Task: inverse folding
């Protein structure tokens, strides 16, 4: 199974009526989103984006994004 297929499977499972399946899928998707966000913050910083530009794109405060990713 490819990574894309895994993601689609997790997204489908997140809508399951069985909470044990749905909650596990939501946790997996949250981890994936966290990893993707960190990757994109790193990409933005490497391209010279300011903390404010990144914060605006994410819809959070500059302080929040800097606190989370500033020491990476």
Result:
């Amino acid at each position: 199974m490819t990574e894309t297929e895994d993601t689609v499977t997790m997204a489908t499972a997140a809508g399951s009526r069985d909470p044990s399946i749905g909650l596990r899928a939501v946790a997996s998707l949250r981890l994936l989103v966290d990893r993707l966000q960190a990757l994109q913050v790193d990409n933005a910083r490497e391209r010279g984006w300011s903390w404010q530009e990144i914060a605006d794109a994410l819809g959070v405060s500059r302080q929040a994004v800097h606190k989370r990713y500033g020491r990476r």
